[in-house]
Amino acid sequence: MPIITLPYDDLEKLTGTDKDTIIKRVPMIGADIERIEDESIDIEFFPDRPDLYSVEGVARALRGFLDIETGFREYEVKPYTVEITKDENIDSVRPIFGCAIVRGVKFNSSAIKTLMDLQESLHWGLGRDRKKVSIGVHDLSKVQPPFRYIAADPDYSFVPLDFTEPMTMKEILEKHPKGTRFAHILDGFDMYPLILDANDNVLSFPPIINGTLTMVTEETTDLLVDVTGLSNEVYTALNIVTTALAERGGEIEYVKVVNADGTEDIPLDLSPRVKVLERAEIDGLIGMELPADEIVNQLSRMGFGAKELEDGRIEVQIPRYRADILDNSDIIEDIAVGYGFDKIPAVFPMNATVGKSHMLSDISSDMREIMTGLGYLQVMPFTLTSDRVHFDWMCREKTDDVTYVMHPISEDQTMVRTTILPNLIEILSMNQHRELPQRIFEAGDVVINGKNGLHLAAVSISPQANFTEVRELVDALMRERVVEYEVVESEDPAFMEGRRADIIVNGKKIGVMGELFPQVIVNFGLGQPVVGFEIDLLD
Amino acid sequence: MSSQYNLTSNEKNVLIALENLKDASPDELADKSEMKTETSMQAAFLLEEKGLAQVDETITEIFELTDEGKKYAQEGLPERQIIDAISGPTSMDELKDKFNPAVAGIATGWLRRKGWAGIEKGMIVPTSNAEKGEDEKILEAFAGEAKTFEELGADKKVINDLIKRKLVVKTENKKRKICITSEGKELVVAGITVEEEVAQLTSELLKSGEWKEKKFRPYNIHTAPRPIYGAKIHPYQRLIDEMRRIFLDMGFTEIKGEAVQSSFWNFDSLFQPQDHPAREMQDTFHLSSRSELPLEYKDKVCAVHENGGETGSTGWGGKWSEDIACRNVLRTHTTSLTIKYLADNPEAPVKAFSIDRAYRRETIDPTHTPEFEQLEGVVMDKDMSFSNLLGCLAEFYYRMGFEDIRFRPGYFPYTEPSVEPEVYVDGLGWVELGGAGVFRKEVTAPLGIKYPVLAWGLGVSRLAMLKLGLKDLRQLYHSDIDWLRKSEVCQL
Questions:
Q1: Of A44, A87, A484, B478, which sits 20 to 30 A from A444 (CA to CA)?
Q2: Distance of alpha carbon B247 from alpha carbon B249, whole angstroms
Q3: Neighbours of A79 (CB within 10 A)
Q4: CB < 8 Å to A30, chain B
């Protein structure tokens, strides 16, 4: 989740209150304070609220929540003075396009940084790392309208940001740091997106890099915002960026987009979405009856427009920068957050049900009672392990029933175990500085052919450990389980020949026991005899 | 009278023996009391504690010649050997020819220090008649035996010099002398009867009834015992069992399920968008295998993702891919089990819980492990509300031993409203402990779940760190056997 750095001077000015009030109340709108510094505060906002990824957006939300300025925030949008034509070839490459102008913004270096951070957070949060949404912000005074959004030949060249010499788009993807990082988004296309001005100067090569010509500096006042991508989140991002700039004093002006077929679009729409909520739905979800004026008041504090209709329902105006409102429950949550979770009564449901433990838990619990009674300590190792420990060190052949993970994070954890014994011996190897004898067991899950199983295994290490010890142990266990069993010679290479036995129940092998093969003991770095057994508890 | 001291028969024997001894050595005492030296001394110490005897310890310093010292005692110190062998100025080379070079080397230093000779232009020049020094007298005084300071009649500095020259070593000799005190004497004079004491009760003593006549040797109850440790269940298991009991007490049914889950049950059914970052390979253990999608749900889940289906939601937009939903993963949360259970058991009311392992593709460090236990509770019934969810949380955490709980807004993709419960922990303040919410309609409707579902979960291993005072989560899984042995059953 993105962590947003909010400078106090900006935050206090834009919110209209002091930083201590803000620090105290901000967690209650849904945020985690990460760090409190001398000049700024770092806050982690939830990923569903990209409108809070900037100091302007946070200030807007706080003004409502702190009763400084409540209700739906209206932004004046001036008519277009700039047109952009959209080339038909672009529809198969990066079809969704949004664009707007914001004039009269005063920038200092910190405001520029905030704007850059907002873009990056949106690229991550809404854009899935620029794939679905990418944003460009340009100094409008450096270029000449009308503009064109086209699919261009990869050999088209211009000077990208951070470079001084022209490069072709192909070269940018190969050499520019942003190019190499995001080139995968354009894999498989033979034409690349490009935004040009009337003189064929490049504003942007979405979603990779802007031209250096339109770079925003402290002298910039008028901005062109372009957002391109694959989905409707493009428009949400456009709304978030333009309204954030308007919060800083800018005047928004929409841009007309002329499509290849001659139709026209106005991508910027800041008029509210409207939903009507039934009171029963609100009260039912929160679990208490809220008066209509309370609901309206809380919605206003959360930045919505709201009024009670004559039939008692609540009409809600939803700002276009709110990406998280998918459904009524999202609005109702905001009512609850505004009202305060601490004021909602906590009522334990009085519906009667009968509790029941799971059969597998009951089995494991019985095994723990038996094994601790026999002097064995319970351990709970990881179920992820590796071929090396699971098969190689055990001197066992690999089996074909193993679940391997596709992208292991370390070579110690490449697979889910099918047996428990290797884990137990590993624990012994970590405890060589501890007093002997050591006797440990686990009743735990294994995954065989993609399905969970339940095994019980135990090991004992001491200078006197021998077959008789484990033979008696297994006998005691099976007696306690009231299971008739027999033993036959085993061929399990993890155990020593002549000192190993398969455990048979109803003619089927359910496990094995014996003295571990000396090579196994050595493989695990141990220096004393080890005996052990493992059985399937579900067979 | 002797009863007030509660003497063992060993102590009585020693006390009687001491009466006729004066300043006895341990061996003399052992002889007289007819016991082993260790046993009699042990009794003597116990008598000393009771004020009936006194054990005096004197430390004597004993000096002894080293091998080198013995050699020089016979042959003379190197400087003596050389001064005796030369008559006038002699070159170093000549000395080294005549003597062992080591001897010559040692000698020159000492010749100068003792003022017996000087060195001029590489020549040793004798300057005095080299009278026999104190150190040489002492070497002779040893006469090859270990001697005390007094026996040698030596000067401390001279001895120390010889020790520094590694010709003499010093050892300390402890000598103990035991004598009876006046109280001890009184007691003996008053008369002590020594009767045989029984160390161990036997079945013969019981059967014969002899036990009635016998005196049993008392134990010193103040002797610290050797620590022993019983086999036991893992402290983490006790915590898990406690939580299971709380759920069972509250009428919840325990559920279990597969570690291998389709993306459908792990993510899609929970309205997690298919391009959500948590689904990527950075966070999730993907598997190469695939699962069949449940026919009765897959189209509805598809619709709710793409456009909200019949729920009134906008959905996530875009195209929902069956291919992505089929791919198997190691379950990243146990919610994949609860949601499937709810789909399979649509009849209200349902109260269910699970405490089981979840897998995340995390690098192991003290606070992250790629697998960990997750607790999950759900309530599905008519008219369930967020208020009821807060009620469940308050009750659950109270039973877990947290009396102060508060609720903060939270975010989870499949719940709305969502809440993060925080509990107050002395010394730590408010600690976030898990997450909760009411399942979104986008989750329940496609699966045919008609009533609201309240759900909450928490990372049990984090809680274990808090409750067991652990600094490193790995201790739970790669346990130190001594930690397990010493963990206290009633700690929690």
A1: A484
A2: 5
A3: 8
A4: 408-411
Spell out the alpha helix ranges (H) of A444-528.
467-480, 518-523
pLDDT of residue B122: 74
pTM to 2 decimals? 0.79
Chain position carrying tokens 């440990």: A440
Give Cβ neighbours of residue A24 (< 8 Å, ≥ 6 apart): none
Q: How far is B457 from chain A (nearest CA, A)?
A: 17
CA distances from A146 to A195, A198, A224, B383 (A): 11, 6, 12, 58
Over pLDDT 70: what percentage of chain B? 99
pLDDT at B129: 77
Single-letter amino acid, residue A153 = D
Contacts for B462 with CB less than 8 Å, ≥ 6 apart? B433, B473
Q: Which has more pLDDT, A108 or B232? A: B232
- B335 appears as a binding residue in the annotation: yes
Is residue B363 situated within a structural domain? yes
- Give the tens place of pLDDT for each residue, A42-96: 999 888 899 999 999 999 999 999 999 999 999 999 999 999 999 989 999 999 9
- Give me the pLDDT at residue A186, please: 92
Q: What's B67's DSSP letter?
A: H
pLDDT in tens, B151-175: 777 778 888 888 888 888 888 888 8
Q: How far apart are the first and last CA of chain A?
A: 46
Structure token digits, residue B362: 């995390």
Strands A251-254 and A77-78: parallel
DSSP character at residue A388: I
Q: What is the pLDDT at residue A1?
A: 66
CA distance A405 to chain B (A): 5
Q: Which residue ranges form the domains of chain A, and what is each CATH number?
A: 3-66 (3.30.56.10), 77-265 (3.50.40.10), 273-342 (3.30.56.10), 359-536 (3.30.930.10)
**Domain assignment present for B135:** no
Number of domains in chain B: 1
CA B211 to chain A, closest CA, distance in angstroms equals: 34
Q: Which one-letter amino acid corresponds to residue B374?
A: Q
At B1 the pLDDT is 47
pLDDT band at B4 (very low <50, low <70, confident <90, very high): low
Q: Which three-class secondary structure string do you get for A3-62?
A: EEEEEHHHHHHHHCCCHHHHHHHHHHHCEEEEEECCCEEEEEECCCCHHHCCHHHHHHHH
Domain span including residue B391: 237-486
Domain membership flag for residue B204 = no
Tally Cβ neighbours within 10 Å of residue A416: 27
ipTM: 0.91
Residue B297: CB atoms within 10 A of its CB come to 17
Q: Find chain B residues with C-beta within 8 A of A360's C-beta.
A: 256
- C-beta separation of A233 from A323 below 8 A: yes
> Is position A83 annotated in a ligand binding site?
no
Residue B459 lies in a domain: yes
Kindly state the tokens that stand for A461.
């290490």
Chain B residues close to A381, C-beta within 8 Å = 477-478
Distance CA B373, CA B334 (A): 9
Other beta carbons less than 10 A from residue A174's beta carbon: 12
3-state SS, A214-283, equals: CCCCCCCCCEEEEEEECCCHHHHHHHHHHHHHHHCCCEEEECEEECCCCCEECCCCCCCEEEEECHHHHH
Number of Cβ within 10 Å of residue B283's Cβ equals 13
Stretch among A68-77, A356-365, B35-44 having the lowest mean pLDDT: B35-44
The whole-chain average pLDDT of chain A stands at: 94
CA–CA separation, B370 and B368 (whole Å): 7
Question: Which residues fall within 8 angstroms of residue A177, CB to CB, at 6 or more apart?
Answer: A162
- The CATH number of whichever domain residue B331 belongs to comes to 3.30.930.10
Which of B246, B250, B233 has the alpha carbon at shortest distance from B400?
A: B246
